Amino acid sequence: MTDIEKRLLNLLNKNGKGFYTITWFTGEKQSYISESVQNVTGFTSTELSKELGGLNNIICEQDRLLVKKALSELFSSSFNSKEITFRIVTKENKIKNIHQIIFVERNSLGKVIVVETINTDFTIETGDSEAINQEYKKLLDLNNAKDKFISIVSHDLRAPFTSLLGFSEILISEKDLPEDEKQEYLGYINNAAQSQLQLVNHLLDWSRLQTGRLVVEPHRLNVKALVANAASLLTGTAIRKSVSIFQSIDEELFIHADERLITQVVCNLLSNAIKFTPTGKSITIRAEKFKTGYIEFVIKDEGVGISDADQSKIFKIDEKFSSNGTEGEKGSGLGLILVKDIIEKHNGEIWFYSRQEVGTEFHFTLPEAKNVVLIVEDDSGMLSLYKKIISKAFEDCEIIEANNGYEALRVILNKLPSLVITDHEMPLMSGVQLIEAIRKKEGKRAVPIIVISAKFNDVIRQKYTELGVNKLIPKPIEGKQLVDLIYQSVN
Q: In the prediction, which pLDDT does 157 show?
């Protein structure tokens, strides 16, 4: 379900004057009816779907043929939406007029695989009706845009095969081609294959983002390290083109984001900057604090710029925008659309400024990471002391408490902290057992951990070292020592 559909469903549920249905025809037929159907029909979704056999069985008999015909026409056409009006008989045996908008999704063969309907009662109040009508329009506009987008992508998916098939047939049929011609044709084939792969990868990632199958998993990330890593992936491309890349980023900037997806964003924008920057020119990447709670990234080039006519097409899925780089480099036309979706999934924004023959600079924002410290301590007095020390030294820090290891693990399941401070000796689970469990759950990311104890010995110290913990504080603790270790751990 798209974000617009979710908002519309929430609106229907809230005002009680409409309901939503969806039916899947992939494999065994399955259906869903929103709970708000009871407000309109008097029947619960369970009664309607299981006992009465679906919405069709409460449609007035005189209108059933009309509804059946409308569905049949939609299924057999190339359209993806239709509006109809019919009457239903409610549980109280009253007649109600229902306005229904039908949306369908089709597979690559054009066969309908999903049917969604949005149904509203004609007696709806004026204010709510206006809100729903606005959502209808957004949904219809989005549906039309996606239809156009699919048409564009279908053309782009076919286009590279002209080169792939044409030059490969020459290589197969003409055995006596000179070596230089063979290499030239192989180069054409390789370029076409690379373009095709880029388009398919962008299309798959965009599709997974739209359908929710690509899950955003944000963590606390160091901005300078992330950008440096992304830039290193394109160093070879920049060197071959003699384009210089300069970075200006504070080491203490952190964002709350999905590392893989944001690396993809930076790589895409940087790749475009290299593509459209002439030999000998430069690109600058900088990042700094924006408005409260956000970090702003800027990728600025000295390239060819974007024409005024093309600037409005940049982020639209129903407008084809793709141009060759300064040395003929090709693009998929989907990269910036994917970038925008990824940034918006992080609650960020993206915009740009561009002048032809001067250059382009893309700006985007991402949430700034807030330090989350998990304190695991069964002694309430010590817990209060740690909280007081940390709160005084780190005003923007969020502190989460746990009285034992099991509570700590439940916390970590919901929110992976920036730092864990734990006592070694605790009831139910020792500090060593807790950290072993944390290391198993956190995957590739190693959360910094500080252990406090009055009974450290060589065996215990060695065990913690093996678990990647080298910050151990003996009791009684010194406030400055704890603050220094926290600062080292989260920066």
A: 62
